[in-house]
Specification:
Distance between the termini: 25 Å
Helix content: over 70%
Number of strands: 0
Oligomer: single chain
Number of helices: 9
Order of helices and strands: HHHHHHHHH
Radius of gyration: 18 Å
Length: 233
């Protein structure tokens, strides 16, 4: 019982620290006459990842499982780099979905966030990086939660992958474009125009994710499952 109480207390304290930090960030920005949306959004997104990283550090994770996680991150980064000449045709989200199916929602979030961060050393770091980290992290988190209740097959993988890549990833990353394009002073009409312009790019990204999952999703899940049985479990 003490162990369970301690576990939940650590999670509650972690979330309280993050929430207080977010509130203080907002208050700090609002004290000044001009609100810097770049800073406030970047800090909020980075702070939102802390509970997942802190909990991961607190778990008893074996070296073999860490190696598997690192390998999946490397695979996700490589999948993005391999198609760098073709805009938005990147199967990185598909790798994140597969990782979440095999390792769970929270590790899916970590793999998604790390994959965006590491791959941007190749594609360029910037204000958009925290948004991409949060977006890919959410793809992994939601995928893990969905496929905890739904059996993964090529059809369910493709459908979920498309929706998350198109709607979730597209929406979150387009927010950074809104803020950058409108100079930190977003307007409704400007935001609508940017979101509308981003639909074709999000659509291509979603279709790429769905196709990759339809063709290779089940195979990769089986391979990772065998690795877990043989070396981790």
């Amino acid at each position: 019982m003490r162990g369970i109480k301690g576990y939940f207390m650590k999670r509650i304290i972690t979330w309280l620290v993050v929430i207080i930090s977010l509130v203080l960030t907002v208050i700090w920005q609002l004290v000044f006459k001009e609100v810097n949306y770049y800073i406030i959004c970047a800090v909020m997104l980075l702070l939102s990842t802390l509970p997942f990283f802190i909990r991961f550090e607190g778990e008893k994770t074996s070296a073999r499982e860490i190696s598997l996680i690192a390998t999946l991150i490397a695979l996700a980064v490589a999948s993005r780099a391999a198609f760098y000449l073709i805009p938005q045709v990147k199967p990185i989200a598909a790798v994140v979905v597969i990782s979440a199916v095999c390792l769970g929602a929270e590790k899916g979030y970590l793999i998604g966030a790390f994959s965006a961060f590491v791959s941007n050393f190749l594609f360029g770091q910037g204000f958009w990086t925290p948004f991409q980290m949060a977006a890919l992290g959410l793809v992994g988190l939601i995928s893990g939660l969905i496929f905890k209740a739904v059996k993964p097959n090529r059809y369910s993988l493709s459908l979920v992958g498309f929706i998350l890549s198109f709607a979730v990833y597209g929406f979150v990353t387009d927010i950074s474009t809104v803020l950058m394009s409108l100079g930190g002073k977003p307007t409704l009409s400007g935001a609508i125009a940017i979101f509308s312009a981003g639909v074709p790019f999000s659509l291509v990204f979603g279709i790429t994710t769905a196709v990759f999952l339809f063709l290779f999703g089940e195979v990769f899940i089986k391979k990772i499952g065998r690795i877990q049985i043989k070396y981790i479990d």
